[in-house]
Amino acid sequence: MTSTPNPGAGTPRRVPTATHWGNYEVVTDGDGGIDKLEPAADDPRPSPIGRGVADAHHARNRILQPMVRRGWLERGPRYDGGGRGAEPFVPVSWDEAGSLIAAELDRVRETHGNEAIYGGSYGWGSAGRFHHAQSQVHRFLNVLGGFTSSVGSYSAAAMEAVMPHVIGGGPWNAVAQNPLWREIADHGELVVSFGGLAAKNAQANSGGVGRHQAVDWQRRCRDNGVAFVNVSPWRSDAHEALGADWVPLRPNTDVPLMLALAHVLITEGRYDADFMVRCCTGFEVFERYVLGRSDGVVKDPAWAAELTGVDPATIVGLARRIARHRTVINVSFSVQRQDHGEQPYWAAVVLAALSGSMGRPGAASRPRWASRRPVWSASATPSRRCRRGTTRSGCSSRSRASPTCCCTPESPSTTTAAGCATRTSASSTGRAGTPSTIIRT
């Protein structure tokens, strides 16, 4: 989207555009520049982010051409005089910038090999896939013979790492198997959300959002009798129209709370023992841990209260509600962006399996409900993936502990982490890369 004058300059125009936070019409001024963005007519809850696009387009600090750090430009890439972060940037022409980049890529390839080129750019630059920055960078670097890429995402790296070992399938299988809002409205009874359901998180989606519907679907669930519980330090992490019960807790203590909830379910005989036997592995190990038989620490509500700040009676009451109702255990992305961030997702699956709701319509354990995935929050604009090509030469091996090479496929691990129940089917053992689906009525 640019302000380049067009043949119709002098006459305002309306041009449709798609962004990560919604569809809009760009209203141009008489000189062909951007005057404002107006939401698409069929979006029931348009994001206010679009209003800022015109201001950003005309902002004084907008970068309009390539910029190169002065020390690098004057003394070359081998200069290590400590200027990064302190030296000014110098504007150069597009032709000069292209020549500098081409020369540096050649130097690195010839000196260190293609594996020394890191294909970065996270890719949130625009909606759709053809203009997806990361896809274009990877496609370009594959033409050069290859590059070093990375594993996981900024958004949910801990979830992506652990869930294949807990429920099987790929890194995003946990999302793909989760219920839609319409299913919750028709069949669900209770939604317990660790990290909340902040409405603002549903404004954006990678690839674009066609219609923002998350809040309307949540309200429809509420109108149909579904109750909400917001487990978060922030009361505002759930839309006020939901009338959600608020369970405030200290940050990074979601897992102790989940363990205490599990303790109540187990000791009061409220857990789904049949489901544990037929569809899960590792329950005996988990039970010993929760009851303190393996380490001498009983994970009861009194223990959790010291860590979370949540009253023991509140924990007991919430556990009993989970057992009585068809429940969804939701975990936001924020909960896994912390030390040992994989554990909340693991514990949430265990809690959902214990509750008796796993596999039933309108119930499950699921991540990032109030986030950006269009399958539940909104209908997204169609997108097509840009072909990134393949490499011609070998590069360094992949590893989860370091950036990975795009041309060496990662072998799925067959190690199942111990300590928590693993969702399985009759033919699955919970190994990474092995999908499993359980449907109950």
Tell me the structural class: alpha/beta
Spatial strand order of the main sheet: 10-9-7-12-13
Number of strands: 16
Strand content: 5-15%
**What is the C-alpha radius of gyration, as a whole number of Å?**
25 Å
Gross geometry: globular
DSSP helix count?
A: 16
Average pLDDT, to the nearest integer?
A: 80
Strand count, sense and closure of the main sheet?
5 strands, parallel
Low-pLDDT stretches are 1-6, 369-386, 392-441
Overview of the structural elements:
The structure is a single chain. The chain has 441 residues and is an alpha/beta fold. It contains 16 helices and 16 strands. It has a five-stranded parallel beta sheet with strand order 10-9-7-12-13. It has a three-stranded antiparallel beta sheet with strand order 1-2-3. A two-stranded antiparallel ribbon has the order 4-5. The two termini are 50 Å apart. The relative contact order is 0.15. Residues 1-6, 369-386 and 392-441 have low confidence and may be disordered.
Concise structural overview:
It contains 16 helices and 16 strands.
Which descriptors would you attach to this protein?
disordered N terminus, globular, 441 residues, alpha/beta, disordered C terminus, three-stranded antiparallel beta sheet, five-stranded parallel beta sheet
Topology, element by element:
Blueprint: E1 14-19, E2 22-28, E3 34-39, H1 52-57, E4 67-69, H2 70-75, E5 89-91, H3 94-112, H4 133-143, E6 148-149, H5 157-166, H6 173-176, H7 181-187, E7 190-194, E8 211-212, H8 214-223, E9 227-231, E10 245-247, H9 254-267, H10 273-279, E11 280-281, H11 283-290, H12 301-308, H13 312-324, E12 327-331, H14 333-336, H15 342-355, E13 364-367, H16 374-377, E14 378-379, E15 404-405, E16 422-423
Parallel strand pairs: 7-9, 7-12, 9-10, 12-13
Antiparallel strand pairs: 1-2, 2-3, 4-5, 6-15, 8-14, 11-16
